Amino acid sequence: MEIEDIKKLIAKGEKIDVEFKKATKEINRDVYDSVCAFTNRDGGDIFLGVGDDRSIIGVDASSVDKMLKNFTTAINSGDKISPPLFIIPKVVKIDGKIVIHIHVPKGSQVCRHAGKIFDRNYEGDIDITNNSEMVFKLYQKRQSDFFVNKVFPHLDFSALDAGVIDKARHMTSYENNIAHPWRSMTDEELLRSAGLILHDSETNKEGLTLAAILLFGKDSTIMSVLPQYKTDAICRVYNLDRYDDRDVVATNLIDSYSRLMAFGKKHLNDIFVLDGILRVSARDHILREMISNTLAHRDYSSALSAQFVIERDKMYTVNSNLANGHGILDPKTFKPFSKNPPIAKVFREILLADELGSGMRNSYKYAKLYSGGEPQFSEEDVFTLTVPLTERANPLVNDPVGDTVVTDEFSLITREKKPETREKTREKNSKTGEKTVQTREKIISIIKDNPSVTTTELAQTLGLSDKGVEWQLKQLKESSMIRRVGPDKGGHWEIVK
């Protein structure tokens, strides 16, 4: 790495793969914690002689040789760093001061420092030795096999739902008027061709994989092998304390997809959109990418419940993830990485997903058509896909007359809303809107009596959460009805109109 590149890196400050240490005369213990954390995560760069504020302090010239020797000896000692690492620090001069640059590559094995396991996040180095789930995930990331390939030799075909397998069989496509091979296969042949029956090296027996159970298992079977599995679908537009609607989905992945699609269609308008000269359902395309992504690529070993949430200005999915990078993904540099290949393969065969990597391109395309904004993909231990929404998209906010909805997730047939359905929706929105107006009037009244009232005090008086009050205050400020004078602490509110 050139000096100019190092300067640019230091100028950006500390982050998940960059750490600064003052360390002017000796190597402190926390340097080895960072080395361990970096090699366990995705690698990174450590700079000795640099302050947390990015200032170049410099390493004492007379101590450089001793520090380099001690560092090299320590990381090659199995007693201190296990397994030993081969890292060569480099000495560079920046603004006339000595800085030691340690580049730590990503390790192929889980590393320990003094018997402890460290991982890395944006807050710094964290000791995860006693966190069994985080340690398990760390080891899992370094295994060549996938968690969903776990074999259950004691389960037979009675653990699966034959009706769901048949449904998947008929969801496959025809190509050049030739039926998909799965259409003529038996259930066992279909599962074998999809890699859902594997050999278990421990028991020396064949069996159904976890992927097979997730895709086609009976609900009771799924709960017996993976009790934490579910997807929580939530619509939260007006009732910010809880939700406006909710569906806890804990069934096979094929039916989960259908239920989550139905939930999204129920709460999102199918805005009239043209792709060139063709009318397309941008809503359905976006929902397809979001839902297939969270079902096919989540980390099923985690106890974290996945979520599909629709809010006033955005919708998003959240799921546990075996991260293959960190931060906001850039579509120009993104490299697709299959998290659960057997599940992704079945989704592609039954047309619930396309080739690996196409989901991001489709999401950008249809999000712009639908709301004019861009989706955001955040790759961390928890993966988040966020799509912005406009008021036109949300029927709880705005229920357009004569809007069209798709009646079946596998077709583009549209129909107009029934008049009675529109009327019920409007009636519900009217009541919710009246309640919102009353709440805001109460807030203004309270502010008139006590301009220094706090968010917590408002929440206690109104019976809302702090977050709910913050949202109401934001709307009042954006409507130029109130304004904040002074800082959050010590300031006060003023009524504008």
What would you note in describing this structure?
Residues 398-419 have low confidence and may be disordered. This protein has 15 helices and 26 strands. Helix 10 runs antiparallel to helix 12. It is an alpha+beta fold.
> Unreliable runs, pLDDT <50, ≥5 residues?
398-419
Number-wise, the strands total 26
Helix content: 25-40%
Q: What is the count of DSSP helices, taking H or I runs of 4+ residues? A: 15
Spatial strand arrangement across the major sheet: 15-14-18-19-22-21-20
Pairing-aware structural class of the strands and helices? alpha+beta
Amino-to-carboxy terminus distance: 59 Å
Main beta sheet strand tally, sense and closure: 7 strands, mixed
User: Looking at the structure, what is the overall shape?
Assistant: globular
- Summed over residues and divided by their number, the pLDDT gives a mean of 85
- Rounded Rg: 28 Å
DSSP strand (E) fraction? Answer: 15-25%
Q: Notable features of this structure?
A:
22% strand; seven-stranded mixed beta sheet; 497 residues; alpha+beta
Helices, strands, pairings?
Layout: H1 3-11, E1 18-21, H2 29-40, E2 44-48, H3 64-75, E3 81-82, E4 90-94, E5 97-104, E6 112-113, E7 116-121, E8 124-127, H4 132-141, E9 151-152, H5 162-171, E10 174-175, E11 178-179, H6 187-193, E12 197-200, E13 205-209, H7 210-216, H8 219-225, E14 231-236, E15 245-249, H9 253-267, E16 273-275, E17 278-280, H10 282-296, E18 306-311, E19 314-320, E20 327-328, H11 341-349, H12 358-371, E21 376-379, E22 382-388, E23 404-406, E24 414-416, H13 419-449, H14 455-462, H15 466-478, E25 482-485, E26 492-495
Parallel strand pairs: 1-2, 14-18
Antiparallel strand pairs: 2-5, 3-6, 4-5, 6-7, 7-8, 9-13, 10-11, 12-13, 14-15, 16-17, 18-19, 19-22, 20-21, 21-22, 23-24, 25-26
